[in-house]
Request: fold
Amino acid sequence: MSWQTYVDSNLVGSGRVSKAAILGQKGGVWAASAGYTLSADEQKAILTIWTNPGTAQASGIRLAGQKFFTLQVNDRALYGKKAADGCVIVKTKQAILVAEYTAPTQAPETTPVVEGLADYLISVGY
Reply:
């Protein structure tokens, strides 16, 4: 399956994710929703979440020009909020899944979709 198919079918196609991207842990966008562009600075900030979580906790995270406040960051994921909308960012062995959701969808609906795909990718070596 192509990386774009994971974004289109597994994430956005779930109906629980409005926009998504898959980044490589060594940099670069592997796939993204149509019109969803993460700037070079945003990508760099995402890549450093787990090496410097204090920055994400203090300043939040920007995705496609929108600032999300960090609710929680752990060894695997970052959860963010912007008004009624939010984001879930999950790290696998080689990739980082970035997903946004918009109200009325909420984190308990989106999180299992993103983390489920992350678990699958980890199980197949990604």
User: Anything to note?
Assistant: The chain is about 35% helix and 35% strand. The CA atoms of residues 84 and 95 lie 27 Å apart.
